[in-house]
Amino acid sequence: MINEMTAIVAVTAGLGLLVAVAGLGAMWLLRERSIGVMLAVVAVVTVVATLGGVVAITLKMIIEGTPRDIVLSVVAVGGLVGLGVATVLARRVVAASRSLVDAVHAVPASGEFTPPRGLPAELGTIAESLDRAYRRLRLAGERERALESARRELVTWVSHDLRTPLAGMRAMAEALEDGVVSDSGTVVRYHRQIRLEVDRLSGMVDDLFELSRIHAGTLRLSRARIGLGDLVADALAGVEELARAKGVRLTGEVDPVIPVQADAAELSRALRNLVVNAIRHTPGDGTVVVRASAGDDTARLSVADGCGGIPADDLPRVFDVAFRGEAARTPTADGAGAGLGLAIARGIVEAHGGTIGVVNSGPGCRFEIDLPLSA
Q: Largest CB tally within 10 Å, which of 16, 130, 136, 292?
């Protein structure tokens, strides 16, 4: 009995191994064909291995007549059923994969991908992944178009902002050179105006360089533990003369000891840009309030002005490059730049891992910077 079982196992194992090797070879040769072909090969290998084993065992056991016919018939029917089910499954998988491919081919230029319904779980996962990928591509495309539009506006507006003072400087320099202006008072005034325009152009070039570093991702921060109280004091001291000339009152309100890990110079520049912007848009005899407060795990810097508020349509664009909130590009008396200050402030704050925003509040608006508190 043991010898017969050993022989049966050996025969079936040998036949199964031969059929499996032949099936793997066929699948390798057909590796670039449809999934349906692969499934058909698997079904055929299974049926042939089973049928071969049964036939070998039947012959070994010398089963003849009706019993042998019954065994072979049952195996044949089972093989046909398996092939039929495998064929239906293969057609189902192929149809689902083709519907997914057709959905990908039907994606319009806008990138709107509509996943087909009724897909098997694996293909459904692929469809969801494609949907997320197309969504990210759409967002990336929108950001790229917005950035390209901002760049074009920046080139146009900065070109205008550079051309105007350069034309004035050239006219004054030619007047001085040709001797058209000879009285000492006018000469001194021309020299002073040229120096002011040079300072303004230098500041604009510096802003452009800073913005280019932010956009290129090359802004390097030298972080250290600093207190926001000192930062607010330095910012207010740096703009005191501008506020006095405009007739604007400056007020600072700081909670005790608010430490953050930040680059003092860069963060001070961001805060100063906000304060200068608030002073320029606050009417004379108005007030600009700078506050520093601490929450559970964040520190907040806020700058409140008396500008009268920002139109709701302009609020999302306040931090865009070269946005001034007005169509005119004429230089102002206080030497306002090319509208880069708020864009630079946003870039610096985000480089620190913080957020910046603006809301209308009271007689004007309030800019808010949130930064992680230092442990």
A: 292
Q: What is the pLDDT of residue 325?
A: 59
Q: Choose among 79, 87, 107, 80: nearest CA to 34.
A: 87
Question: How far apart, in Å, are the Cα atoms of 250 and each of 212, 275, 293, 355, 365?
Answer: 31, 9, 17, 24, 15
The set of residues, in sequence order, having a beta carbon less than 8 Å from that of 28 and lying 6+ positions away, is: none
Read out DSSP for 40-93?
Answer: HHHHHHHHHHHHHHHHHHHHHTT--HHHHHHHHHHHHHHHHHHHHHHHHHHHHH
**pTM of the model as a whole:** 0.58
**What are the φ/ψ torsions at residue 307 (nearest 5 degrees)?**
-75, -10
| Two tokens, residue 22 | 């032949």
Q: What is the pLDDT of residue 327?
A: 41
Distance CA(216)–CA(214), nearest Å, equals 6
What are the angstrom distances between the C-alpha of 39 and each of 31, 83, 176?
11, 10, 91
| Closest of 367, 371, 326 to residue 348, by C-alpha | 371
Comparing C-alpha atoms, which of 25, 34, 9 is closest to residue 91? 34
Query: What's the CA gap between 18 and 49, in Å, rounded?
Result: 9
Could you say which DSSP state residue 220 is in? -
Q: Is residue 290 within 8 Å of residue 253, measured between CB atoms?
A: yes
Closest to 361 (Cα-Cα) out of 319, 291, 301, 310 = 310
- Cα dihedral 51→57→58→63 (10° resolution): -170
